[in-house]
Design brief:
CATH architecture: Beta Barrel
Strand content: 25-35%
Structural class: alpha+beta
Radius of gyration: 17 Å
Order of helices and strands: HEHHEEEHHEEEEEEHEH
Shape: globular
Largest sheet: 8 strands, antiparallel, barrel
Strand order of the largest sheet: 2-4-5-6-7-8-9-10
Number of helices: 7
Amino acid sequence: MFSWCWIFEIVFLVLRVRYALAFDVHRVSCEEFEQGARFDPYVAIDSMWKVFYFWSNNSEVYPIIFSLPAKQRIERFKVVIEALDPELAATIEWHRATLIMEPRPGVMAIFMYQGSPGAFRVLIKTEQRKTVRPHPVPLLSFADVRIKMVDRLIGMMVCEDLSAYALARVDEMPQTEEECEEAAALLGLPLEYGRSHLFLANYTKHNMDKEL
């Protein structure tokens, strides 16, 4: 099994920002998080999204794009998986593919519906573009994820380590700490264990200034 902190580095990233702060894990389980959840993939694909609040030791600052799983696209993805790991490919219920997330070129995450609103098994493929050797094979990983929509927000939790992320449309990002906390509170997670994108931006700038 892969830890989600490692998987999240693969999935949610156009630019990864790391910092040395350790936050307590909030005490909301995936089962609690998904109670009464609703999720409509067609709403997710209408915009680009960004993380504005996170309950994790790392987060991302660039837009995240969702799309529907076109048949030809899934078939191409399936061919790659079958070539890399036929036994793994045989266990994947491709007909359950509901949503695709592409955080950057070379990375694709397919969300497989698990029978209840917002419950997904996520298959992630990332190309090793920074690897020196010629034509390295893509990396594959899985995660158990819950997604829900509240008002015009998306909340996402990873069941492996209970890390969680609050997303808003790029043109609707909260602009103050108060707005971030007010929006994040709608997802039902303890604010004291999370941080906003503003905190992350200030932290990053402070550390960059120290290095100059």
